[in-house]
Design brief:
By secondary structure, the chain is an alpha/beta fold. It contains 14 helices and 16 strands. The strands form three sheets. It has a ten-stranded mixed β-sheet with strand order 7-8-6-5-10-1-11-15-2-16, with helices on both faces.
Length: about 450
Amino acid sequence: MFSLKQRTFFAITTVAAIVLAVVTASNSNADDYPRSIRRSVFGGRAKNVILFIGDGMGDSEITIARNYSVGAAGRLALDTLPLTGAYTTYALQESNPKLPDYVTDSAASGTGWATGNKTSNGRISTTAGTDQDLKTILEIAKEKGFRTGNVSTAELTDATPAVLMSHVNDRSCQGPQDMAKCPQDKKSAGGSGSIAEQSIDHNVDVLLGGGKQRFDQIIDGGQFTGKTVIQAAQAQGYDIVTSAAQLQSAQPGTKLLGLFSSGNMSLEWGGEPAIPYPGSGPQRCQENLRPADQPSLADMTTKAISLLEQQSRGRTGFFLQVEGASIDKRDHAGNPCEQIGETVAFDQAVKAGLEYAKQHPDTLVVVTADHGHTSQIIPQPTETDHSPGEFSTLITADDAEMTVNYATNLPTRSQEHTGTQVRIAAQGPQAANVVGVIDQTDLFHIIARAIGAE
């Protein structure tokens, strides 16, 4: 007998197939778009999977970036995927895991799609309350012979990349010296170590992002006691690169660890932050601020795909997760230009993934977010009628003014996530299963089916 989730997936696929058959039959040109849809419905298993996560990239964040960069009638690359749905993002309460926590953080939400299980905020692929390890889709893909990659503009030990390749009870346990909240996981206590240590021990083929400060820390137990995590990585066959030029020169054949910043990677754009009435602006954003020695997210994505594709020739394909991390971080800071710049950079990475998939139609591409966030487009404020929060007015690609508001916390404080459902879009084998309203945990099963694990 099929499970409820399997029956739901089959129902979605069947309905989508019927509708799309009518649509494509009426399209005598049969261009790339309907062909992509047909593959998404009938494509079977995927050779490759590329999962794009825009951290904090709710519908408002997408709309703000679209309006500013290409205009209200324009379309981003992430808008072009043929099948779109929404998924719910709630977490669980740690003290009572039977009850929902309606506003998730990145750790709990990432655990949802990484493992197919809900957990409480702050946990990295472990169960709420009982602290049991949950097997991740990356671990499953490795068992099935897939090459694996993890790319982020955050520290590689931050929550979203961490959920695929580590298991700790608290997301703060990023390096060997950051284990105050995870004493049972320390190497010296017989545990698996910090997120940085576990990411190396998982033998992920390509790791690219920030967070070098975590990998420079000294391991306190086990085989590599007294060595840094980077030294342990080198001992386990990793090449280390720390600049855009070194990344460009990297060759397939060995595992690759790219650490391009001590902490999070540098921002792409800048501009005035939102402030209380009368707000900042009207302004245009300052572009091209990323240091030349740091690769862009699109550069890292393109290189990761190239290395993984070459390493998997003649074998099972690859699984790659790509995160645009600072959409969320600049939303917290209430800075619309910085937020938009990170969304546009993420969209350029999506474009690179879609270009690869166009030549490799057996690739499942999924673009989604982990949770919603605070920024909203509001009417232009007046002295007698304005938001109690912070806002900034931008001059968009339409040469029109757009006011962006931040009001999920008091001015000057970090803005909060929201509990809204968020977009999920896909193309390629099994992509039809994103249609409708699903849950984050369903994404795990969609990918598992695509790689033949379910």
